[in-house]
């Protein structure tokens, strides 16, 4: 590594040779606005032009050049100005050009209030365009999870690069028409008719409101105001270590017990814990793994907690659907129990229970609406709010999370272990399953809690665990692009595993499509650290030791893998590979 000297805004700094001007400015603390650039995506070549800086000429003929900071490498002795009059004038031109064809509906746009990069930059440079000529490209609300507003698209292509390069799905493309340059789906079909997995990573990187989750805040407010509705809420593990960012806390900060109080302030009747059904998932999934290892069955066993990954497999890997665990996700297990076990214990008609789920995931909205996720015409989960939606709702109601006193969960479905909490990280489901599986296989002789080999942000992680003389081979993949590379080897017979965890989103649930914005690799690392700290702080760290889970089996389910457990907690999948009406694939028990 060699370093060079350059001057930025009359300050001499050192920068690593080969870095771009943008990288050097960011490292030195100088602001440069960006649209097409994103730290976790491949470069687009500076297509938006907002990141221009002034670079002093190297000879007497040219006083200075305007250069795109995201694509221009630094050089020794370079003199750069990031906010000169020439730079500001050019940025205002870029912004005016974008705004001229951008819909002005900030009043109802979900990205206002700090999340819209376009709004923030326009405020910074004092740019507004009164006479707008909106093209009328249309709005796509076909998906139950994601809304597209093409008149807000600024053609930065972040969504294209995320969907294609990171996720390996590729439903978007940039088009040039008489209505300007913008991104739409390939063949311009509704999003619901594509192979979109609803992972929401495109939403996360969109700098404006062209892509948002389908906002369901009003439906929740209506339920809270309805005296006939008994509102029960569950919260995913990752939410508790990320929502604090929306209130100014550092990524990874655990706000679990303040969040309980805030939800009660909203008017929720019962506050429960998705970590509880994460523990329950391990009971069922570990039982399923041990059964397949001992009695035979499709291997490797593939986890089923990530609905984005499940839909991806239904489209791209129908030959592996019988390998996917039949276990519902923790969200759907919780929903099923709320309208059966809890309804019976509380003496409430399931029709009067409003089951609200708080998730870091846009794909959970799709999952909750799958036709098999309910019984007798009643959905197990009525509404899913993303972490961002819940933060917005709390702010709308004047509830400051930071001012809340700590409050515990309600009983029945509130107790959870450290194993349930680490579901929020890539590798967490695998580690939680191993904690219980090795205990069961060795009758408690193998007392391992932490499995470091499956932790971290490497795209694919592998490990071999020796259990009572048997080598169990496992793998973990996060992001659909990494999953694709791993599964191609499995299908080709080049990989021999017993158990594979796959999460659709980079980093797992802490990087979900509904998690706080902005997001980056560095932020994900902080969130993951916070999750593991919460795990260590828990007095119980194995799922099978959860006393409420034990009581649930004793009172209601019988034992893991029982007939009633399969009725409530297991599911089946669909072959979507041929298009048209998806074909159900029989579950393997």
Key attributes of the depicted protein:
589 residues; alpha/beta; Ubiquitin-like (UB roll); Alpha-Beta Plaits; Rossmann fold; 3 domains; 5-stranded mixed sheet; 19 helices; 22 strands
Q: Strand content of the residues, in percent?
A: 15-25%
Straight-line N-to-C gap? 56 Å
Please name the CATH topology of the largest domain.
Answer: Rossmann fold
CA-atom Rg in angstroms: 25 Å
Within the largest sheet, what's the order of strands?
A: 2-1-5-3-4
User: How many β-strand runs?
Assistant: 22
Q: How many domains comprise the coordinates?
A: 3
- Any guess at the CATH architecture of the largest domain? 3-Layer(aba) Sandwich
Helix/sheet category: alpha/beta
Number of alpha- plus pi-helical segments: 19
| Mean pLDDT across residues | 93
Low-confidence stretches: none
CATH class of the largest domain: Alpha Beta
What would the principal axes of the Cα set say about the shape?
Answer: globular
Helix content: 25-40%
The profile of the biggest β sheet is:
5 strands, mixed
Explain this structure to me?
The protein is of the alpha/beta class and 589 residues long. It folds into 3 domains: 3-97, Roll (Ubiquitin-like (UB roll)), CATH 3.10.20.740; 101-213, Alpha-Beta Plaits (2-Layer Sandwich), CATH 3.30.70; 218-585, Rossmann fold (3-Layer(aba) Sandwich). Helix content is 34%, strand content 17%. The chain has 19 helices and 22 strands. The strands form 7 sheets. A 5-stranded mixed sheet has the order 2-1-5-3-4, sandwiched between helices. The protein has a 4-stranded parallel sheet with strand order 12-11-14-17, with helices on both faces. A 4-stranded mixed sheet has the order 13-20-19-18. 50% of the residues are buried.
């Amino acid at each position: 590594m060699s370093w060079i000297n350059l001057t930025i805004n009359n300050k001499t700094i050192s920068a690593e040779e080969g870095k771009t001007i943008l990288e050097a400015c960011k490292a030195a603390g100088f602001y440069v606005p960006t649209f097409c650039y994103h730290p976790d995506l491949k470069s687009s070549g500076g297509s938006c032009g907002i990141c221009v800086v002034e670079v002093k000429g190297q000879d007497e003929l040219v006083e200075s050049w305007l250069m795109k900071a995201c694509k221009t490498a630094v050089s020794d002795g370079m003199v750069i100005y990031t906010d000169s009059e020439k730079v500001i004038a050019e940025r205002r031109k870029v912004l005016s050009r974008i705004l001229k064809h951008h819909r002005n509906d900030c009043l109802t746009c979900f990205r206002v209030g700090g999340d819209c990069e376009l709004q923030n930059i326009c405020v910074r440079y004092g740019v507004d365009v009164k006479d707008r000529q909106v093209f009328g490209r249309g709005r796509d609300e076909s998906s139950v999870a994601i809304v597209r507003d093409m008149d807000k698209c600024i053609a930065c292509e972040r969504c294209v690069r995320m969907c294609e390069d990171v996720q390996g799905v590729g439903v978007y493309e940039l088009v040039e028409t008489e209505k300007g340059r913008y991104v739409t789906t390939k063949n311009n079909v509704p999003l619901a008719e594509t192979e979109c997995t609803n992972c929401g990573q495109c939403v996360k990187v969109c700098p404006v409101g062209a892509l948002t989750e389908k906002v369901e805040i009003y439906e929740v407010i209506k339920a809270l105001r309805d005296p006939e509705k008994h509102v029960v809420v569950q919260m995913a593990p990752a939410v508790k270590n990320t929502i604090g960012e929306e209130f100014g806390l550092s990524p990874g900060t655990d706000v679990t017990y303040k969040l309980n109080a805030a939800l009660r302030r909203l008017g929720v009747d019962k506050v429960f814990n998705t970590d509880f059904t994460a523990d329950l998932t391990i009971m069922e999934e570990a039982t399923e793994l041990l059964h397949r290892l001992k009695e035979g069955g499709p291997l490797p066993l593939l986890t089923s907690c990530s609905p984005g990954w499940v839909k991806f497999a239904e489209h791209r890997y129908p030959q592996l659907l019988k390998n996917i665990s039949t276990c519902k996700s923790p969200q759907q297990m919780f929903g099923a129990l709320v309208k059966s076990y809890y309804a019976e214990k509380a003496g409430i008609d399931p029709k009067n229970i409003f089951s609200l789920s708080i998730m870091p995931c846009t794909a959970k909205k799709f999952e909750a609406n799958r036709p098999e996720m309910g019984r007798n015409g009643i959905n197990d989960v009525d509404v899913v709010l993303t972490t961002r939606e819940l933060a917005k709702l709390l702010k709308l109601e004047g509830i400051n999370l930071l001012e809340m006193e700590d409050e515990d969960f309600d009983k029945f479905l509130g107790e959870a272990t450290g194993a349930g909490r680490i579901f929020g990280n890539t590798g967490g489901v695998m580690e939680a399953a191993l904690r219980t599986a090795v205990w069961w296989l060795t009758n408690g002789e193998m007392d391992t809690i932490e499995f470091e080999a499956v932790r971290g942000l490497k795209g694919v992680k592998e490990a071999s665990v020796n259990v009572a003389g048997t080598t169990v081979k496992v793998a973990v993949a996060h992001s659909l692009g990494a999953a694709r590379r791993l599964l191609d080897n499995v299908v080709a017979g080049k990989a021999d595993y017993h158990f594979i965890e796959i999460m659709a989103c980079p980093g797992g649930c802490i990087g979900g499509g509904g998690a706080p914005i902005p997001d980056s690799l560095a932020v994900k690392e902080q969130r993951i650290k916070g999750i593991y700290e919460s795990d260590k702080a828990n007095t119980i760290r194995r799922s099978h030791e959860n006393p409420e889970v034990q009581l649930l089996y004793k009172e209601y389910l019988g034992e893991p893998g029982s007939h009633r457990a399969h009725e409530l907690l297991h599911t089946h999948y669909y072959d979507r590979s041929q298009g048209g009406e998806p074909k159900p694939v029989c579950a393997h028990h």
